Structures
1.
Amino acid sequence: MRGYLIAGNWKMNGSKAANAKLTREILAGWADTASVRLLVCPPYPYLGILAETLSGTPVALGAQNVSQHASGAYTGEVSPGMLKDMACEFVIVGHSERRALMGESSDIVAEKFAAAISAGLRPILCVGETLEEREQDRTEAVIDEQLDAVLDRAGIEAFDSAVIAYEPVWAIGTGRTASPQQAQDVHRHIRSRLAARNAEIAEATQILYGGSVKGDNAAGLFTMPDIDGGLIGGASLKAGDFLAIAAAAASLG
Ligand code: 13P
């Protein structure tokens, strides 16, 4: 039983006041549920405050990025050990915005993933194709390259704790969601790629879908057999929207 993970990627949004309101409303509206875990990933400066607010609650804490280095002269970077120190359980690696805007290659993503695992964090590895790549029928090839870089570096055993998020770039922030069947087809492919290395780990690995998930399309996605939750951008910034997505998962769990 993999259970559902509903993760909010707040991206570069929020403030002390807005975050306090958002977390207060999420906590007030959420009853601990065995089959569904909630996670929020705020920007770095707010991790400390959120760690205190969320301590002892059923909502987990994660970061949106991490350095591949453990310490040293890397101005502006944050190490995996620091995130662990700030009570993060999860960290997103390889989000398409970082791949596209910050030039993170699959090799760098793999280094970050491995460094996160070494520090005892649970990485959420993002993979996904652009619209052009989908139209050229290259979706699976693109995902294989992104996935294999990590599998070759960190090993399949890393997925004892790691999570994968399939986020088609064309569905992020566009209001255009992959259909449940489109997403399921890619999730199935990802799971079979993992299974080629270890069938038992593949079966237990949570694979989230991300890209314009909202309260009204969440249940359709989450009923698919290989979709184990969502990585939510825009809809994670409003407690009501985020809770509606979580409730959709809970109703299926
Ligand atoms: P949206 O939910 O805003 O499309 O963003 C998805 C995403 O990028 C989550 O990481």
Note: Residues 9, 95, 167, 172-173, 210-213, 231-235 surround 1,3-dihydroxyacetonephosphate (CB under 6 Å).
2.
Amino acid sequence: ELELELEAALRAGLSVERASPPLPFPVKSAIRFLNQAQFHPRAYVVPLAHGIVGGGSHVFEATRVIAVDEGEPCRIHTDLDTTLTADRVILATHAPLNRVLLQTKLAQYRSYVVAGPVRHSPYGLFWDMDDPYHYIRSHRIGDQFYLLVGGEDHKTGQDPETDVKFHRLVEYARRFDVSTITHRWSAQVIEPVDGLPFIGRNAGSERVFVATGFSGDGMVFGTLSAMILADLCRGIPNRYAELYQATRVKPLASLASYIEENVDFPLHLLSDTLRPPDVTSLDAIERGDGKIVRVRGERLAVYRDHEGALHAVSPVCTHLGCHVAFNVSERSWDCPCHGSRFDVDGTVINAPAVHNLRRRNVF
Ligand code: FES
């Protein structure tokens, strides 16, 4: 696989070579991409965000878009019961809204990261080829270097053992001189079915564009999206537009993974209501945990907080109706079909769902 990667990179004209990575453990083989850069993402995007405001442009924070009507102008409806208008709309929302066809070409994964201070940090960004894979990078705060080890990805809502993921990453990090783990977090990663992001006009749209499927490389592909979409909005040709167009179908590159990523939805839809609940009584739910339980004949998703109070919601995902599963380390209800996520009171955290889970009473 690595040889094929090397050959493909060379064919594509990239500067790449075989290398011995400066890691404290042996590796069988490695390749290195030259002329790369590492930079602080927030230091990059905050000035960009400040640059938006003014001249008819605004930033609306804490405002969820729930629907977009294309027209002249386009109308953008929000969860605050307000409607914004715009000549053109770019949905850079991870999971594009109401785009069912595009949805089938994307899969949402959780990725995990642990970090801790190190005396010696390897310089560079490293990916291994395990399955699930790992990535290694470093970050400096003042004079202190931190090592970040990430990976253990799985499809959102499909692996309840999220604490085990962190445990495995901590074990992996012990190969370095990390004395203690000071940070851990997880994030949503959107994988495109044929390996490249979807950037461009959406199917059947003149004025609505999408940018998604960045596969964990959001700094690079976010910037590329801005370049492509700024040109498309102004009718200027862009040399990358065709390669990334959002309406493309690449059967050779994507068929196997298209099928694999899309069996979850019909399977879950058929089996969710038939599956027995996780527990048979509310008393069986421990503090800090959430379970599917049947109460007075109705299936409910119930979380018991650390004070012992119960939070009950409907388990039926408001996107297309699959049943959510509890994510212990994030304390969220995650949908195994297309990766929507909700907090313990049912509020949407991650699209494609835009509506909250219905709250229910258990008593
Ligand atoms: Fe599609 Fe839940 S995310 S059914």
Note: The pocket of FE2/S2 (inorganic) cluster is lined by residues 317, 319-322, 335, 337-340, 352-353 (CB under 6 Å).
